[in-house]
Amino acid sequence: xxxxxxxxxxxxxxxxxNAKVSALAQYFEEAxxxxxxxxxxxxxxRRPKRTVNSTLLRTWAAELAGIPLWLxxxxxxxxxxxxxxxxxxxxxxxxxxxxxLTYWIEYIKSLGKxxxxxxxxxxxxxxxxxDYTERLVFNKxxxxxxxxxxxQKLMVRALSxxxxxxxxxLAHRIMGNWDPAETSFEHLILTKDPLEDISKPxxxxxxxxxxxxxxxxxxxxxxxxxxxxDGIRGQLIVRKDELFVWSRGEELVTDKFPEYHPLAExxxxxxxxxxxxxxxxxxxxxxxxxxxxRIGRKNVTKSILKKAPVVMMAYDLLEWQxxxxxxxPLHQRRQLLEEMLKAHEADGILIxxxxxxxxxxxxxxxxxxxxxEHHSEGLMLKRRDSQYKAGRKKGDWWKWKVDPxxxxxxxxxxxxxxxxxxxLFTDFTFAVWDGDALVPFAKAYSGLTDKEFxxxxxxxxxxxxxxxxxxxxxxxxxxxxxAFEGIRASGRHKSGVALRFPRISRWRKDKPIREAGTLxxxxxxxxx
Length: 528
Fold this sequence. Notes:
Radius of gyration: 26 Å
Shape: globular
Strand content: 15-25%
CATH architecture of the largest domain: 2-Layer Sandwich
Oligomer: single chain
């Protein structure tokens, strides 16, 4: 654990990429195999599940430090990071910790089955055996959050430096669903997978948001438009009679979507399709929320398959008959994609993402305004002669999303932020009118300037009515315009609706609270 804590300190104290890579490579050289494996897991977002809630950790830390809970809470809000606040508050260590990172992770995992009092005894005993940095790391592992400014790509560079194995090969080996409890560093990192070569996806080509007027892009004839579907971007691969499905997040998700499995027999070998994993039923797309019911589940039951079936909405053809054709112009790749779909029966599992014909930017703008009628987020604009590049590149591919929905709402609760905004109130709950009552319907924490956050913070401090832990109930006085991407009915929320990506778009100081929106208005947007 000391080695890993020292690594954490080195990574946290530098912003230089080469220094981080060097520190990681040195750690891989010195750590034992089990700790190396868990470090790869942690830095590729495969952390142990949370086994103790943060409320208990705060209570136990305050008790061990001999201070009232309210004082710890105030200190936490100043520090802005709960793991750090606990590590700073606890008294000096009473014994020396010589245990490994792997030991402490197994220790954390074992807490899930224990009663509260036994959890408390084991947590406080662990704290007392650790120094400040070890406690900080331990706390972050308990709470399931571990961000130290190291991307998975950077970690792969360090692994490559340590092992001498090509970065692309290593990146592929750590993709997909694997558990440190069920593999080893030797097997995962150092052993070649027989399917490794045939299952490799291509790097995804990502579009930039269009912020200028589309007329700036040039002649409409040079561009192709299609709907921007709201699912999960993915690549579907068929090679040597095997099928693989990768998400844009570099996760192998083949088993999550059994609908695609028949395509291993229906599509020719050497085929790679870029598209959208899209919930689709009765001839139309479902909402992203329907897809979320399947994400994160180990077993996809028959009822889930029936409730939220998926298709692959095909955008592009990246490999054809075993040849990488990403350098072909888009219009040629699209033609091959269309011909392939006509020649090979996909039984409605694989659907071509149709283009949106247009001769003038004005007419396409109208199509964009009607995007929600097609259950899409807007339009994609792609230059007809563009190659399929890697990563986010400006110039050839643009996403032109529909303007968000919005409603004016009253702020009724406020909570402090984290990190550099720990002294400011930045997290708010908003309500709309239902008759004479204000009904909460959304939380938002972005959209204001630092100056506005400071102003609203000063006001909250003067106008707090009640406190519920870190949450302040305030006098209904201010109206804010809340923007959001979508809305759906929800039985879990008092308002009966749930929003997708709510955020503050502006502070309506010009509007009295009685002129805020209504629940009826919100529910009227459900069809949009």
